[in-house]
Known about the structure:
Shape: globular
Low-confidence stretches: 1-14, 366-402
Bound molecules: ligand MTE
CATH topology of the largest domain: Sulfite Oxidase, Chain A, domain 2
Mean pLDDT: 87
Largest sheet: 5 strands, mixed
Amino acid sequence: MIDMKTETWTAVAPVGLIRQKDPNNLEMPFDQLSGFITPSELFYIRSHFPVPQLDPAAFRLSIRGAVWNELSLSYADIRAMHSRTGVATLECAGNSRVFLAPPVPGAQWELGAVGNAEWTGVPLSALLEIAGLADDVCDIVLQGADRGVPKEEPKPPGVISYARSIPRARATEPDVLIAYQMNGRDLTPDHGYPLRAIVPGHYGMSSVKWLTDIVATTRPFQGYWQTSDYGYWDDSEGIPVRRPLAEMKLKSQIARPRVYERLQPSRPYTIFGVAWAGDTDVTEIWISLDGGASWVQGDFVDPIRRHAWRRWKYDWITPAQPGRYTLLARATGADQRTQPDGHNPNFGSYVINHPLPSRSLSPPFELARLQLLEGLPIPSWRAGVSTAVKICCEHLNVANRR
Length: 402
Ligand code: MTE
């Protein structure tokens, strides 16, 4: 196995890579993937507005709207209730955006806006049962304490809160949590302290952080984060209709080798990655070592666990011939569907779940020569790699200044 720590040009400190500032949006350096559970310090952070400072002593969670009993619960009330713990993968809907060509606006996430954590909290269903939902409730709106003006057009006329809804049927399933712990510790401010929703299987945008309001509605919620942002065009019935993103699509990612890693020829090398899905189980993983011309089956490291990712591996003997090799991974689900060949433009700059290329070099192929060979313009996914390098340097500089 190649000692990947000897590679220097993409070396990263064990902290997130900054994708946006004010507020900080960080992604995990994905080549550091190791355990089934993503350590909280490495777990990506996606926040649209500055982190609200919430005092747990004064904190209230309000449950209102079309309910029989409105509730106002303290943090202590929630902590005293019967809890449940579950593992769930969260992926930001814009993860891997840097791979889109031509480039699109938005945070240029590479592979690290995804993580798998253990969450503890009170089932949302328990709270809704105490509140008593009216018969005609269709959506449960989850609203956070953070406020601001969104960056993306079309902008609302003023300051808004972050709010998303989930359908009643999903909200009343026992695995949807009002969580207060992540990986056995109280949530950090960046991850939603004191309370956040966890909606397993959904893209991360449904797991509302700094949760203060749960509102039962009798009409489908049409808020900004449901329609303008985190929406897609559904054209399945002929006329395109804007719908909210919800379940994560089947996806696999290669963590190692990392993009443009240089490998020694004719050596054993374990290709390593993860695969997950929102509404099915991942049952097969296929690897291509030749840019998609042929596929071999990989092995799973983890058993099937609903809504948690599965690590996988493939033991490879690197080619004897020097050159550049494009590796791809493609998962299949229990529903027999597989990842699509390309990005569906109906999803705009979201849902990037086609097999993503990981290119490896076998010496004497050097990066500069490869760039010459591939010519200009620089594909967006490679631009992302150079961004990563720049950002790593930024980290190092910051560390050096301290
Ligand atoms: N909740 C609030 N209140 N504000 C936000 O900006 N971002 C959402 C979701 N919940 C967000 C939020 C998005 S887009 C994602 S991907 C996840 O939180 C990220 O959760 P994390 O930062 O804990 O990884």
